[in-house]
Amino acid sequence: MKKYAKIIVAILLILLLATALFACINPDNDTEGQMTLVVLNGDNAKEYAVDLAQIPSGNASKGLIAVLDYLKGKGQLSYASNDSGYGAYLTQVNELKEQGGYYLYVYTDVQDDFDVSQYAQQITYKNKSYTNSGVGVSQMSVKAGCTIIISTIYYG
Both ends of the chain: CA-CA distance in Å? Predict the structure, then answer.
């Protein structure tokens, strides 16, 4: 009986370790299809069409950061971030910078990521409404067909 107990414990331990290994991967992020990233600086917008199949495997758990890393690696975009206890915090994307009361703000059309607090903000871009993200850029959902907008907001 002890022999079977040891085998069962070993199997359970292996299953537990396998679960822990893959627990950080966000299964909600798509790995196929195309999404759009927009860097919006006033009336000046720079759009990036991103083929999600080109994002290196293993980066799906990094949310929007995986997309930014991919575009940065291709020399199409520059960005800077600080790592906080809650994930990455964007301080610069292209010419958008955190300075003088301006902060980078991220909007999305992925409803699961909407800010549902009383402080939620919306913008309209190309006749479509986008809501600011209620999660950090490292945790954002990246879906085929989605659009994510990075802009600034002023807190004075």
Answer: 70
